[in-house]
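[Automated response] Your request has been received and processed.

Submitted sequence:
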Amino acid sequence: MLFVLYMVVLGCTDGKSDTADTTVDSPIFSVERMWDIPQRSTEWWEQEDERSSVFAGAGALMEDIDRDGLLDLVLLRRGGVHILRNLNGQFETMRVPEIEGLPANGSIVDWDQDGDMDLFLNTAFGEDALCRWDDGWSVEYLSSSDYSAASTWYDVNNDGLLDLLSAGYGNDHDPALVEALQTNTPHPGEDNALWIQQSDHSFVRTEDFEGNDFANFSFSMTMLPFQQQNDWDLLVVNDFGHLNGAHQLFSLNDGLFTSVEPGHGLDVAMYGMGIDATDLNDDLVPDVFITNIDRPVLLTSLDGTWVDSTLALGFDFIEERQVCWGVDWYDVNNDGHEDLWVGCGPLTNPEEFPMLEPQLYQPDALYLWTDEGYQDVAFDWGIAETTSTRAGGFADFNNDGCAELVRVPRDGPTQLFEGACPSEHQWLDIRLDDGNHGIGATIVVRTPDSRQVRWITAGGTSFATFTPLIAHFGFGAAGLSTVDVEVTWRDGSTSSHTVDLNQRITLTQ
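Generated structure:
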């Protein structure tokens, strides 16, 4: 049965490249190639207190804040916000906004279109913070949940201005929740929120969000073209699914979200944590990997629905990986196939989950595509770290076309592993410029024998992580000089381009 499902999922592979000669012998990442990350004293992560027992305080945001062409790094730790400017391989501490609450997640987006990159920060023990840069940081607080876990940006009403969706979580150490877990009864978390940006760049919370009164301990949310190509759909990933309800899919029509009836296959009841999307079967429809307490799920599209293909595609998690958080699809070796990183680590309150036999040793995973299917190379490459990973993902900090791996544990320092891709493998990075970084756009790249798709999303990747607004493509040793690129912009217009490989380019609407 698994073999049959494998063939169904990957049956439409005529558009995928066969030029890659992938091996696992030469590590792309290794502990011998780690960059130094300036961080404060280790005392704060060795001490256990109220602030260390929640999901917050272990996040990473990656984008070019100072607009110098190099990606910078924002760390969200229990010791506060760290902004690290990338000086071509070395990091320098920048000024940070002082906020109330514990930073949990966020984004780096120029939502007010003034040319400066701004910060949005989800928090625990406080309200969400809009941090604008104008020769210094100014902070405006939104009336949000006390425990806010994630966010995503999208031009909801197609007026040219980005709007904000924020995921409300809740206090998962509340004794009432512990009792609900023991008795298997519903227990509400905190509300999700939709904030519409006004012409003066202020934000007004709207109640026009049908079905959003389910306070489901939402950990992640992402905007993607699941069912609609023009106005994308919103998928909300919920924790404690067996108590409060499965993941929720919302359809966007005329600026309003409406709840999609269950049965589409994305509505899995689980301890949903992080999420990321790719296209595994070349149908230009998102397939998503969602992390979990216990077994994660890979949901692949099939004739308008989604099916669980986790085991069929070789993602057989070892027993020690009981709880996983961060997740990121990325072609780490530029062979034309996306690979999968998953960050794992134990809970701070395992005694409240009787299905677990607490494991302190919960290694991360890196599933690399090979001719024999996906193989976990994290152990062989020495990056199956055993501190409790939360945030993480890939970004190219030295502009060589080969991404670095960032991982952020709750109980240790942030690590950045330098990438070392095969030099003969070709690549292309694409930024978009439509005034909103191309957020909500679809990019399809074609070669004579392959097709790849990326979606520009602002939030909704990994867990407590914001990955750059850059679409990355690998092509293996194909010996190409150019590729054809088609962009479908947020407003529905399209543009076609023929571009050279092995560079980072910006396409303007």
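Summary generated for your ticket: The chain is about 5% helix and 40% strand. The CA atoms of residues 442 and 455 lie 5 Å apart.
If you did not submit this request, please reply to this message.
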